[in-house]
Amino acid sequence: MTPPKRQRRFPQEPLPPPPPPPRPGVKKNPERLFVVAGKDGAERAELDLVTLIVASAVPSPSSAPEQTALLRLCTTPLSVAELSAYLNLPFSAMTVLLTDMLTADLVTARAPLVRQSVADRSLLEAVMHGLQRL
């Protein structure tokens, strides 16, 4: 037997629907990206998502918060995609920020390390012979 459903003596007004959840990567203040990116139309560095960025200077007290965070993150090589995700900035704003930092010699950009697509045959044979001896 199922218990009866409880009913309120004084029904409450229905609550308004909750606001939609914010989309990932979208900030409440869209003008903030303009402050980070600066004017549009300037020359931008040729950066890919996989370009590795390495800091070549320490952050100064007068630098912008984004530049300080970027310099602290780039003590080891990180790709532009990783930096964009860590700083929660879109790729376009990240390229503008990195272009300014590249011209100021605060960071250096380099192509990603590409490994050989096919392993060396002698190395594979050595591994195979070592496994056969086990």
Automatic annotation (TrEMBL):
<feature type="compositionally biased region" description="Pro residues">
    <location>
        <begin position="13"/>
        <end position="24"/>
    </location>
</feature>
<feature type="region of interest" description="Disordered">
    <location>
        <begin position="1"/>
        <end position="30"/>
    </location>
</feature>
<dbReference type="InterPro" id="IPR007995">
    <property type="entry name" value="DUF742"/>
</dbReference>
<protein>
    <submittedName>
        <fullName>DUF742 domain-containing protein</fullName>
    </submittedName>
</protein>
<dbReference type="Pfam" id="PF05331">
    <property type="entry name" value="DUF742"/>
</dbReference>
